């Protein structure tokens, strides 16, 4: 909707020269930087089943969240610390989102961007409430939704930073070659499909992670196979996008995240295998002495790290894919319009 | 030829579509499905009885569930009724404590800093299932399958074959985990929490075994066609009206007897005269090492104890590959079904049973012992066998004049360790289980 603004408005006019856009960009990058650890800690919350370590919300054991004594929080039980840190980081993300909206409203000449920032703020509020409702009602379904919206928000923040960058404002025209519109479209469309698959994969992962115990083993097996199948699809998908970006000679700014995705997905495949092993062990232990001698340690440090890293890398892949998509469409847009 | 190919293709297609359907219902359905606060009934055993007896077990099944609910409560609200507790001796060392059961039951939650509730659902349910039937969501993808507590049979214990484990046995499994399987070590979980989990495991095992006994009795002894019931009328009305506690005194002795027997078995385990303790383990190579190993090898390969018959003369474990464990035999062989016959199996798999897998003897040359690698653990494996698996207990003197004497037993233990190159000098040092004050 907002994309249909006349191109001329995209340039922030005289304000572009001032410090405003810079601050906006920094805030957007800052938001992304805050949300990534938030995602890690959120992952730890689930890994340690710490979601219910604090029974109330928005208070923590009756305390105002921000006044909860530092000593109890840091030296208290681990799961309590994790859950409380998650809440504090979440509030911080909210504050940055508010600041971003204010600054964008004052200094950004693009109404659609201001609108987007409103959306961003609403999203972070909604996510906070979801988290709270999850605690108050102890609903696994809500925990799942909370777990899927988190990465989506992270991706939104990353895209915001892209849209606030000077690269975006300048309009990526340096490399606009005439007649390249069709190719750009290919990359943009295919990476958009990839984005949808990445998100589907995240949703599947959340299903596997938030078990109630009432699922049948058939359901879980089907889910696991789907998660594996989608992983294979994604592995092929990122290679295709990277190759296309390379072969079709799209801009470096699109090519680079597309290449990074290949590396990230490789890491993610390894982490995924590791996550299975430290949760459920491999069923072929008679093949290999190392497998046969491994004992899972529930809530062990290495175990938790691998599981949480798998989840955080998933979010990172979503964010990088989203940035690729945003940039690819931006290039296409600029190529079509011919000028910023 | 061509027809067979198309048929296979069609079958593959059908299975893909079915998986997708399951997937869709499970993603979409979760939002709407209310989780009932009830233990899932033992459908596999009911199906087995149905096939075995050729009768419908529907009504028996229903009444058994009513009684179980009245006696044992629900996943959120466990019960250990007074009358059972009385039968249970009501001593301070009572088999399980309701307080600990409540800690372990229900949803994951906390009421004060650092105190956890809902431990079973937090730590165990993904594999062992809500009712402890070993059919948790992840079960089908694990090898070995997670333990089905409902048969009341456990492998890694120091009591004789056929007996229940002690609390210490169960606790030791929780601390140590089972290497090479999905069963984790819960070393990082508070001791107090582990104790509650031991209680809950016993609770599920007692409840599950009682369910089986009741169901069997109800199917074979009650004349359902003739209008008979398992439960007395007023109990049926009370229970179906959602009424809470059933006055246990009003129940037939006959109904409660199996429960009392099960509880007795559990209590007996703690005082079993044949329960092995750390002190019973043979000392590593007290005398001539070479002689001991030779004697051990001879025993291992000989016919008296016949270890090599399953584990192979070299101990690599591949000699005997078409045996099944008792959990699998229960819904196959015991019901006259060939575990390898897909067609016969179909109704049981439909009821939720897992695909039978052969029980493989261990490759002893790796020296990885799932039941613990203390000398006393190996000694327990050999003298008591491994419950629920084909691995028998070795015949021993003086009960069996042809059996092993104490010295030979020691030689065999040492030889087994030597198969994995673990023969040099003393063992790892005996690990004293975390015994201790039980509140």
How does this model look, in words?
- The complex is a heterodimer of chains A (340) and B (439).
- By secondary structure, chain A is mainly alpha-helical.
- Chain A has twelve helices and no strands.
- Residues 1-16 of chain A have low confidence and may be disordered.
- Chain B is globular.
- Chain B is mainly alpha-helical.
- In chain B, strand 1 and strand 2 form a beta hairpin.
- The model of chain B is unreliable at 424-439 (pLDDT under 50).
- Chain B has a two-stranded antiparallel sheet.
- At the A-B interface, helix 9 and helix 11 of A face helix 1, strand 1, helix 6 and helix 7 of B.
Topology:
The complex is a heterodimer of chains A (340) and B (439).
Chain A: H1 7-10, H2 20-47, H3 70-75, H4 78-107, H5 111-137, H6 140-164, H7 166-170, H8 181-209, H9 217-247, H10 252-280, H11 289-293, H12 301-337
Helix pairs in contact in A: 2-4, 2-6, 2-12, 4-5, 5-6, 6-8, 6-12, 8-9, 8-12, 9-10, 10-12
Chain B: H1 2-32, H2 43-53, H3 58-72, H4 82-87, H5 98-104, E1 109-110, E2 116-117, H6 119-123, H7 125-128, H8 167-176, H9 191-221, H10 233-240, H11 253-270, H12 289-301, H13 307-311, H14 326-329, H15 342-350, H16 375-384, H17 406-419
Antiparallel strand pairs in B: 1-2
Helix pairs in contact in B: 2-9, 3-9, 5-9, 8-9, 9-11, 12-17, 16-17
Q: How many strands in all of chain B?
A: 2
Number of strands of chain A: 0
Helix and strand string of chain A, N-terminal first?
Answer: HHHHHHHHHHHH
Radius of gyration of chain B: 24 Å
Choose one word for the global shape of chain B: globular
Q: Which two chains form the greatest contact, residue counts included?
A: A-B, 51 and 57 residues
- The CA-CA distance between the termini of chain A, in Å, is 18 Å
- SSE string of chain B, helix = H, strand = E? HHHHHEEHHHHHHHHHHHH
How are the strands of the largest sheet of chain B arranged?
A: 1-2
Determine the number of helices of chain B (DSSP H or I, runs of at least 4 residues).
Answer: 17
Note the gap between the termini of chain B: 70 Å
Report the principal-axis shape of chain A: flat
Helix content of chain A: over 70%
Strand content of chain B: under 5%
Derived from helix and strand composition plus strand pairing, the structural class of chain B reads mainly alpha
């Amino acid at each position: 909707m907002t994309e249909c603004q006349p191109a001329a408005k995209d340039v922030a006019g005289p304000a572009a020269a001032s410090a405003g856009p810079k601050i906006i960009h920094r805030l957007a990058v800052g938001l992304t930087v805050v949300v990534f650890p938030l995602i890690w800690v959120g992952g730890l919350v689930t890994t340690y089943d710490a979601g219910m370590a604090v029974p109330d919300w928005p208070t923590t054991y009756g305390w105002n969240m921000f006044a909860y004594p530092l000593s109890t929080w840091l030296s208290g039980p681990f799961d309590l610390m994790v859950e409380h840190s998650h809440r504090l980081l979440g509030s911080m993300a909210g504050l940055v989102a508010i600041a971003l909206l204010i600054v964008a409203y004052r200094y950004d000449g693009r109404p659609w961007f201001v609108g987007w920032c409103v959306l961003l703020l609403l999203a972070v509020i909604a996510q906070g409430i979801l988290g709270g409702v999850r605690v108050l009602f102890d609903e696994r379904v809500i925990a799942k939704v909370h777990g899927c919206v988190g990465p989506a928000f992270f991706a939104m923040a990353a895209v915001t930073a892209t849209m606030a960058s000077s690269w975006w404002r300048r309009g990526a025209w340096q490399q606009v070659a005439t007649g390249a519109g069709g190719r750009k479209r290919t990359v943009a469309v295919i990476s958009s499909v990839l984005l949808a698959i990445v998100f589907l994969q995240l949703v599947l992962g959340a299903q596997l992670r938030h078990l109630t115990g009432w699922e049948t083993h058939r359901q879980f097996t089907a889910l696991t196979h789907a998660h594996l199948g989608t992983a294979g699809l994604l592995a092929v998908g990122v290679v295709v996008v990277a190759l296309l970006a390379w072969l079709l000679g799209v801009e470096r700014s699109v090519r680079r995240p597309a290449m990074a995705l290949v590396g990230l997905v490789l890491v993610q495949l390894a982490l995924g295998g590791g996550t299975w092993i430290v949760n459920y062990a491999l069923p072929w232990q008679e093949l290999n002495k190392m497998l046969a001698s491994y004992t899972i340690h529930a809530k062990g440090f290495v175990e938790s790290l691998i599981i949480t890293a798998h989840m955080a890398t998933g979010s990172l892949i979503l964010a990088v894919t989203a940035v690729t998509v945003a940039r690819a469409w931006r290039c296409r847009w600029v190529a079509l319009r011919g000028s910023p | 030829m061509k027809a067979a190919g198309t048929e296979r293709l069609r079958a593959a297609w059908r299975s893909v579509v079915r998986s997708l359907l399951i997937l869709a219902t499970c993603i979409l359905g979760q939002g709407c499905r209310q989780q009932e606060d009830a233990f899932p009934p033992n459908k596999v055993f009911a199906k087995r009885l149905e096939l075995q007896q050729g009768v419908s077990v529907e009504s028996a099944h229903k009444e058994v569930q009513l009684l179980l609910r009245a006696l044992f409560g629900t996943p959120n609200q466990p019960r250990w009724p007074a009358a059972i507790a009385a039968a249970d001796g009501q001593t301070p060392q009572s088999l399980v404590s309701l307080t600990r059961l409540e800690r372990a039951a229900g949803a994951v939650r906390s009421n004060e800093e650092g105190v956890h509730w809902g431990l079973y659902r937090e730590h165990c349910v993904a594999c062992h299932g809500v009712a402890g039937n070993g059919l948790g969501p992840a079960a089908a993808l694990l090898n070995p399958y997670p333990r089905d507590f409902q048969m009341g049979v456990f492998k890694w214990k120091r009591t004789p074959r056929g007996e229940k484990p002690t609390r210490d046995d169960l606790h030791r499994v929780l601390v140590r985990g089972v290497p090479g399987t999905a069963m984790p070590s819960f070393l990082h979980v508070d001791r107090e929490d582990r104790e509650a989990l031991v209680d809950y495991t016993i609770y599920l095992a007692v409840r599950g075994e009682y369910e089986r006994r009741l169901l069997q009795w109800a199917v074979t002894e009650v004349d359902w066609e003739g209008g008979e019931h398992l439960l007395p009328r007023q109990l049926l009305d009370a229970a179906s009206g959602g009424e809470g506690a059933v006055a246990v005194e009003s129940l037939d002795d006959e109904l409660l007897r199996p429960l009392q027997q099960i509880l007795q078995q559990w209590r007996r385990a703690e005082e079993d005269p044949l329960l092995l303790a750390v002190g019973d383990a043979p000392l590593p190579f007290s005398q001539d090492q070479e002689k001991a190993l030779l004697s051990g090898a001879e025993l291992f390969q000989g016919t008296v104890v016949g270890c090599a018959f399953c584990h192979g003369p070299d101990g690599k474990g591949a000699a005997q590959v078409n045996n099944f464990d008792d959990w699998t035999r229960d819904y196959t062989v015991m019901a006259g079904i060939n575990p390898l016959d897909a067609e016969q199996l179909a109704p049981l798999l439909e009821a939720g049973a897992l695909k039978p897998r052969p029980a493989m003897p261990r490759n002893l040359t790796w020296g990885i012992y799932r039941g613990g690698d203390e000398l006393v653990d190996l000694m327990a494996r050999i003298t008591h066998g491994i419950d629920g698996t084909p691995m028998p207990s070795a015949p021993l003197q003086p009960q069996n004049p042809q059996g092993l004497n104490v010295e030979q037993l020691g030689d065999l233990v040492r030889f087994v360790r030597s198969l994995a190159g673990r023969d040099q000098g003393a063992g790892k040092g005996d690990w004293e289980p975390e015994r201790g004050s039980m509140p």
